[in-house]
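Lab notes, practical 5.
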Amino acid sequence: MSIQPPARLEQPPSNLVCLRIKPPFLLPWLSATEKRSNVVVLDFEADGEDAHTLRLDLNVAFTPIPVRRGVVTRVDYYVGSTEADIAVTALHGRVINHTPSVPLKVSYSNTTKVDRKTGLRLSPAVTAKAGETEAEVEMGSISRTAGRSASFTAKFENEERQLNALLLGDAVEWSLRFPQTAMVIQDFLQGNLYLFAECNWPIMPRSGSIAIRPDIQFFDHTRRLLGRMQSLAMRCVLWKHGITLQHWDGFSVDFEEVKHERSAG
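Output from the prediction step:
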């Protein structure tokens, strides 16, 4: 019989932010099927400005779904979104800084460089049920190290859009919209919108939510918006092809700070 020495426990660094995400609907955790079933997906990072403040950097990715149509000539029609509402809420806290309102013009590009002050660990909260027993299932954490620099670039190659921001104390809401003109051609359905919100909590834990509500519509092979009757026909095409679109009315994810977990060394 051999006696093994006890595992050495290492305390994670004090400048590590650990957030539990529920549901785990972030881009790195999505399956290939989920990516093909959503026209808008989300990824985000968080950095601890101080013990009570977090900066949240959002990546809202617009990903149109192609649907092949035609008999002799086969072309792709699209299910997608060119407009959306995005909201960040700090539960029992307040938003102290955020991406402001701005017009997004043709070939608009904006790059922001962020130097990370703390490490970050995002852990998915997933519950599996077998009979009467429930247990949390780990999908693998997302980690970022302190001292790393990251650049976030928002770029649009389409007609002008307007990003409007509304500050509501404990929340900030953004609305991405096209101007209401009859001649607008919605010819750009995919791209990334980068937003940030800096939030402060007087009491712990730091927690809140991120919600996205896209305006889902149908587009032809030239990426022009379809009319009402053609859109109804596209719904039938989706059903015929067995394409199930998720989150027609949008989705939200909750985040909550959790204590540092010790790891065996």
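Observations recorded by the TA: The longest strand covers residues 75-90. The CA atoms of residues 206 and 257 lie 5 Å apart.
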